[in-house]
Amino acid sequence: MNILVCVSPVPDTTTKITFADNNTKFNTNGVQFIINPYDELALTRALEITEAQGGEVTVITVGTAGTEPIIRKALAIGAHNAIRVNLDPVDAMQVAKAIQVAVADKSFDLILTGRESIDHNGGLVAGLLAELMGMNLINVVTKIDVDGTTVTAVRDIDGGRETVSCELPAVLSAQKDLCEPRIPNMRGIMQARTKPLQVVEYSESATGTSVSSFELPPAKEGVKLIDAANAGELIDLLRTEKKLI
Amino acid sequence: MIAVYIETDGGSIKKSSLEALAYGADLAAQTGDQCAAVLLGSTSDVNLGDSGANKTLTITGDALSTFTAETFAAAMDQACAELDAHTIIISNTYNGKSIAPRLAVKRNAAIVSGVVSQADTSTGFSVRKSCFSNKAFAQVAVNGENRVITLIPNSYEVKSFGLSASASTSAYVGPQATVKSVSIDKVKGKIPLTEAELVVSAGRGMKGPENWGMIEELADILGAATACSKPVSDMDWRPHSEHVGQTGITIKPNLYIAVGISGAIQHLAGVSSSKVICVINTDPEAPFFKAADYGIVGDAFEVVPKLIARAKELKTA
After folding, report:
1. What's residue B189's pLDDT?
2. How far is A42 from chain B (nearest CA, A)?
3. Is residue A240 part of a domain?
4. pLDDT of residue B246
5. What's the CA gap between B64 and B172, in Å, rounded?
6. Is the minimum CB–CB distance between A118 and chain B shorter than 8 Å?
7. Which residue of A27, A175, B181, B228 is surrounded by the most CB atoms within 10 Å?
8. CA torsion B283→B284→B287→B292, rounded to 10°?
9. What is the rounded CA–CA span in Å between residue B234 and residue B251?
10. What pLDDT does B114 receive?
């Protein structure tokens, strides 16, 4: 069982988001980057599966050399080897194509991603990879079980969950509740330093989309406080001022 | 031609799909184009002309009786080829998000997900999308002739267009499903959180799961869905499907009432796009008040019953 886990570096969840270069770039100054939380779940579940059934976990990141601390952390958590595609990606399609090309000479039974990165919130790479590589897709899953060549997963649907199954190879994207993320231990951190990290180049000039500017949401006008003793007034205000109820 | 995927649930058309259709229809008007509504598997007698469609195309086939990303993407691909569609609008639901990327590859299209407002077509084609977990927006230029847009539910108004749509049907010619549905577990009779216009949410301030009765009662009277904060779902006081926030569900209802939730940045990420936010918290320093439109500093156990009582009075008045 060989599993590929796609790992994306994202700003820490407590980061105050600001922009630089006339609001055209995310301001990374002083920002702590972490493994995208959903990708961390995908990685942990991949390790659980290979520990039970044998096989290797490869992590892949599309990013410049600055993303290597994240890749080393994934190796410290337990991934067996890593690939970095040396590219500062512009959009999800470019990421998916870069991954497809980088792993063209390898074969994986399972490809796992997070359900989305918490910076771009695209949630597209799993679906794009499945289509590009001609694999089955199960998106946004909270449970993954592999039995022989069949994977059974529970995916989120509007207002509930659906259990689905398909043959391998397949691409699945991890949702919260899939497992408890692992924290690297000292032994893992030491081992990670010598685990193989392959750097591959990818060049494609044209991309389908590009961000022209960023904007912060408008600030709220300020809270209107209602006395707790007359709490019922809130209902009246929502009805008369906002016409919501 | 602009093609809009119309998602159905138990035979009825989802409101989020009608929003996508209104988006497609306005975009068509803006660019001198036509808009087609695409139904997969099940036909509908709803007049989609009034919702903005110039025509409807239904792809029928046994393979489309249950949802899978591959068959539905293949059916959309077939529909788009028949319609000669260059722009495809899909609501950003779980199913929509599974179809959209597969379809983008099939159509050789650029794709933008999480779009929140109408495209700017004054120069090229550019859309605004939510990013950094609702802490920011990005204006995204979409290049090329073909594009797939996924629209966040509750971002666009459903309207009456008064058009009459011509209808046609084609038989599905794509592959059979290789992903099989084993079982579906749906919370019956409840409003799905992502589609709810009103949401009542509660956090650790409720002290325990046994106290959720009043939250549900308030939600019931208002016709709202219930939600919760991360700690509450982590402690299994409430199901995971109710967890809103950065690592939970992102929602943008018209009204979000937060009871006993302090408003950590990760929680705000999931709800800050709500149009009106009301916060009830004992702590006047709770960060949530800064993001709120209305606030009540007080104990949930005193405040919520008053809200219920007043809502009941107005309902019977």
Report:
1. 64
2. 14
3. no
4. 86
5. 8
6. yes
7. B228
8. 120
9. 19
10. 96
C-beta of residue A159 within 8 angstroms of C-beta of residue B190: yes
**Radius of gyration of chain A, Cα coordinates, nearest whole angstrom:** 21
C-beta atoms of A233 and B310 within 8 A: yes
Judged by a CB distance cut-off of 8 A, whether residue A156 touches chain B is yes
Write down the residue that tokens 């084993």 correspond to: B182
B-proximal residues of A, 11-30, CB under 8 Å: 11, 13-14, 17, 19, 26
What letter represents residue B128's amino acid? R
- Determine the pLDDT at residue A36: 97
Contact A130 B278 (CB under 8 A): no
The C-alpha atoms of residue A90 and residue A92 are separated, in whole angstroms, by 7
Tell me if ipTM is over 0.90.
yes
Enclosing domain of residue A88: 3-219
Residue B63 tokens read as 């393979």
CB burial of residue B299 (10 Å; 0-12, 13-18, 19+): middle
State whether residue B140 sits within 8 Å of chain A by CB.
yes
Q: A8, A71 in Cβ contact below 8 A? A: no
Which region, left, alpha or beta, applies to residue B61 given φ > 0 means left and ψ of -120 to 50 means alpha?
left
- Helix A37-53 and helix A68-77, axial crossing angle in degrees, nearest 10: 40
Measured CA distances, A143 to A60, A121, A161 (Å)? 22, 21, 10
Residues lower than pLDDT 50 in chain B: none
B94 and chain A in contact, CB less than 8 A: yes
Question: Which structure tokens are listed for A38?
Answer: 């959903």
Residues of chain B with CATH 3.40.50.1220: 193-316
- Residues in a beta bridge with A162: A155, B184
Q: Return per-residue pLDDT of chain A as tens, 245 residues.
A: 999 999 999 999 889 999 999 999 999 999 999 999 999 999 999 999 999 999 999 999 999 999 999 999 999 999 999 999 999 999 999 999 999 999 999 999 999 999 999 999 999 999 999 999 999 999 999 999 999 999 999 999 988 899 999 999 999 999 988 999 999 999 999 999 999 999 999 988 678 999 999 999 888 888 999 999 999 999 999 999 988 88
How far apart, in whole angstroms, are the C-alpha atoms of residue B37 and residue B53? 6
* Residue pLDDT, tens place only, B46-75: 779 999 999 999 999 999 999 999 999 999
Specify the CATH number for the domain of residue A204.
3.40.50.620
Third-level CATH fold of B193-316: Rossmann fold (3.40.50)
- Are A234 and B307 in contact (CB < 8 Å)? yes
Specify whether the CB–CB gap between B174 and A131 falls below 8 A: no
Nearest CB among A119, A126, A159 relative to B186 is that of A159
Under CATH, what is the fold of the domain B2-171? Rossmann fold (3.40.50)
Q: Which token pair is B245?
A: 């926030």
Instruction: Give residue B161's identity as a one-letter amino acid code.
Output: F
Question: How many Å lie between the alpha carbon of B120 and the closest alpha carbon of chain A?
Answer: 12
